[in-house]
């Protein structure tokens, strides 16, 4: 039987690299994306393009979580909160408070829904592109968080109770952004189809925290980012 994996696919660099890792590991890919009212909803078009690239377009699911926009409280879901630009907030990985781009409970919700989907389709793994090194200090990107969710999944699912728990795979968790880019290029991940910009325009801004970290990663890897920017 073919082994299956659900990949939480945003359409960004990290989640697309996870698609590459899951494919390399021999999994049949089940990409899962979320429309949660994010400012950069254009990323869902990129997710669809990535899913098509890997031949999984028909299996690609997009789940609507509109209530996150109703809740607000994040620069990504609340129009009253601006996305910080260059110099207004530390680059990811630097000391500082949890930034306004943190979406409360996002990865907890994503992993819960991915668990339901994985158990439904008979997947044995869930891939998520969390990172504990070059990241914004989000609490739901830490290995401690992943370990606790893994424990809960084993208790809360039929397969877990039966001794066949679904595993959460986090291949990027201890990689620098440059390391992620290098690995993605090795696996021929289609970075030209991705976006990481928080502002949600066709051309990446180059100023937001996510753009800056992405550009920094490509530069440190000695490579050129294939997507277009208003400014690099």
Question: Which ranges are low-confidence, i.e. pLDDT below 50, for 5 or more consecutive residues?
Answer: 89-93
Give the proportion of residues in helices: 25-40%
Relative strand content: 5-15%
Widest β-sheet, arrangement of strands: 3-2-1-4-5
Shape: globular
- By DSSP (H or I, 4+ residues per run), the number of helices equals 8
Protein name: 7-cyano-7-deazaguanine synthase
Family: Belongs to the QueC family.
Pfam family, one: QueC
Catalytic activity: 7-carboxy-7-carbaguanine + NH4(+) + 2 ATP = 7-cyano-7-carbaguanine + 2 AMP + 2 diphosphate + 2 H(+)
Structure description:
This protein is an alpha/beta fold. Helices cover 36% and strands 10% of the residues. It has helices at 13-24, 43-53, 67-71, 106-121, 143-156, 158-161, 177-186, 209-220, and strands at residues 4-8, 28-35, 61-64, 125-127, 167-169. Strands 3-2-1-4-5 form a five-stranded parallel sheet, sandwiched between helices. Helix 2 (43-53) links the parallel strand 2 and strand 3 (61-64). Helix 7 (177-186) crosses helix 8 (209-220). The chain starts with a strand and ends in a 12-residue tail after the last helix. The model is unreliable at 89-93 (pLDDT under 50).
In short:
The protein is α/β, with parallel strands linked by helices and 232 residues long.
């Amino acid at each position: 039987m073919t082994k299956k994996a659900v990949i939480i696919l945003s359409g960004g660099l990290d989640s697309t690299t996870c698609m590459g890792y899951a494919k390399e590991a021999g999994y049949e890919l089940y990409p899962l994306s979320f429309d949660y009212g994010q400012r950069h909803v254009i990323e869902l078009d990129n997710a669809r393009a990535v899913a098509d690239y890997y031949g999984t377009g028909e299996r690609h699911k997009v789940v609507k979580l509109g209530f996150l926009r109703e809740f607000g409280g994040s620069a990504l879901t609340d129009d009253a909160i601006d996305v910080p630009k260059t110099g207004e907030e530390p680059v990811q990985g630097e000391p500082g408070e949890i930034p306004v781009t943190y979406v409360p409970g996002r990865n907890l919700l994503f992993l819960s829904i991915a668990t339901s989907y994985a158990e439904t389709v008979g997947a044995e793994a869930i891939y998520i592109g969390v990172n504990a090194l070059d990241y914004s200090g989000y609490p739901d990107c830490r290995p401690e968080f992943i370990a606790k969710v893994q424990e809960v999944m084993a208790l809360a699912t039929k397969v877990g109770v039966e001794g066949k728990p679904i595993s959460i795979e986090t291949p990027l968790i201890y990689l620098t952004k440059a390391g992620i880019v290098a690995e993605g290029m090795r696996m021929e991940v289609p970075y030209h189809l991705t976006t990481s910009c928080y502002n949600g325009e066709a051309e990446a801004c180059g100023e937001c925290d996510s753009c800056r970290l992405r550009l920094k990663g490509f530069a440190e890897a000695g490579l050129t980012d294939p997507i277009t920017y208003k400014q690099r």
